[in-house]
């Protein structure tokens, strides 16, 4: 397998063909990670926002920075307190901004922590989210990493975020379907006015710190649910279902999308 | 394996120990099926409503009668029109009533038909439901056999049932999780005031007429969702999760309950 730098350089200089703008997201664990990315961008002469051309699609370069909503998870995941992790994130955001790189913050375990249980303080999540936005993050994804989130607690959290002055347009929601609540919680988010939701095709992924955990909610289930409410995504459920089936087979894992499997079953009739 | 008559006789005369009343439900495809049941009840001297004793729990005997919401499904499933199937059901209900047997009607494919698609007429479902109740059914389970139901169409159906004068207390809802919408639709039902929901432990079952279909929504997911809303079921999610895992293993199938697997994962930590 190629090194991260090689993959990064290849994506920056030869992005895959696409009809619309693609945002390439790089997980940046620390300032060194960002410095490596910037070095490659400088060496290849590719800017963070490439307008594209006839042969190349427009691309946006984005970095992901992670904070956690509980001290126990922060300690286990990043070996520092929440305050320390925010101090580490601050200069990374500042450097990214100078290079016009989009910044996406994450608040992990916002609706349940494997160490501290489901009762995570909504105002603590709101504080961390606000801090990330004030530092210059373009968007913060509030993540139910363990899937412990419920409809009433999702609503409570969204109300706390609103009370802290955070706009829905600066928010993304990231649900795991571990307890089967991801779509229920998505609808709570939609009703509250959030319009950005994370998902993964075929439900790939998962959380290594949460036993028995399934992965992120599948893109197919999310798209089917949003369409069922009469809203638009611009995503073809049929094509996404085919991709989910294909990648699951490639990876030798079970396709974890109900809507994906049902859509393919219907198409096969 | 024992014959249906032997199983039926065994359950009537030696019901398993339980702390609370158990309703034994028998699927009765036609009048002969009911006559066989009545014959066994007469021979064993067991009445439909057994008050129980110190050594035996109270039991209720119940029969299930199926009608479909579309002509195509009725033809494929029971080889007759909807009107003909209701004519066949009528005398079965009448005989059951004379023996004090509880009658549960079902309206299959109420939110989507494998032959006619998702657009099933809500007023047609309401008509069939009302007819079954007028015949003397104690309860009608309106079933999303294919899992095609969505939140807006579930709400539309419940409004049609209400407009037809059907009380929530006479209704049950039966969702399949084929497209991942069972819990979303359950919440729509709960908000509308329905309090009876069908489910199966570990998500056992399925619909042979709907390709790619998963089974009924799992009891564990349903119980977790209802508890998450602060409502009570009287069911222990932990015990139900253990049962779901056990029976899935016994049957050599995948445990299809997300909340069940996650609960067991949490308990194992």
TrEMBL record, chains A, B:
Pathway: Metabolic intermediate metabolism; (S)-3-hydroxy-3-methylglutaryl-CoA degradation; acetoacetate from (S)-3-hydroxy-3-methylglutaryl-CoA: step 1/1. This is hydroxymethylglutaryl-CoA lyase. PANTHER family: HYDROXYMETHYLGLUTARYL-COA LYASE. Pfam families: HMGL-like. One of its GO terms (molecular function) is hydroxymethylglutaryl-CoA lyase activity. It catalyses: (3S)-3-hydroxy-3-methylglutaryl-CoA = acetoacetate + acetyl-CoA. Keywords: Lyase, Metal-binding. Signal peptide: none annotated.
């Amino acid at each position: 397998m190629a090194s991260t730098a090689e993959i990064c350089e290849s994506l920056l200089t030869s992005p895959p063909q696409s009809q619309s703008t693609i945002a390439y997201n790089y997980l940046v664990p620390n300032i060194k990670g960002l410095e490596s990315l910037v070095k490659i961008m400088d060496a290849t002469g590719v800017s963070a926002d490439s307008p594209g051309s006839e042969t190349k699609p427009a691309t946006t370069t984005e970095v992901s920075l992670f904070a956690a909503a509980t001290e126990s998870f922060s300690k286990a995941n990043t070996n520092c307190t929440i305050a320390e992790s925010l101090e580490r994130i601050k200069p990374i955001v500042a450097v990214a901004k100078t290079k016009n790189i989009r910044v996406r913050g994450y608040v992990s375990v916002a609706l349940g922590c494997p160490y501290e249980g489901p009762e995570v303080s909504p105002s603590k999540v709101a504080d961390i989210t606000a801090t990330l936005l004030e530092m210059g993050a373009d968007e913060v994804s509030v993540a139910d990493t363990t899937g412990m989130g419920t409809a009433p607690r999702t609503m409570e959290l969204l109300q706390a975020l609103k009370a802290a002055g955070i706009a829905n347009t600066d928010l993304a929601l990231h649900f795991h379907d571990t307890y089967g609540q991801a779509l229920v919680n998505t609808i709570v988010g939609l009703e509250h006015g959030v319009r950005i939701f994370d998902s993964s095709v075929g439900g790939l992924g998962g959380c290594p710190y949460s036993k028995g955990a399934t992965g992120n909610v599948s893109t197919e289930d999310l798209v089917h649910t949003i369409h069922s409410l009469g809203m638009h995504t611009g995503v073809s459920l049929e094509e996404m279902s085919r991709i989910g089936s294909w990648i699951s087979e490639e990876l030798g894992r079970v396709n974890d999308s109900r809507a994906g499997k049902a859509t393919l079953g219907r198409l096969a009739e």
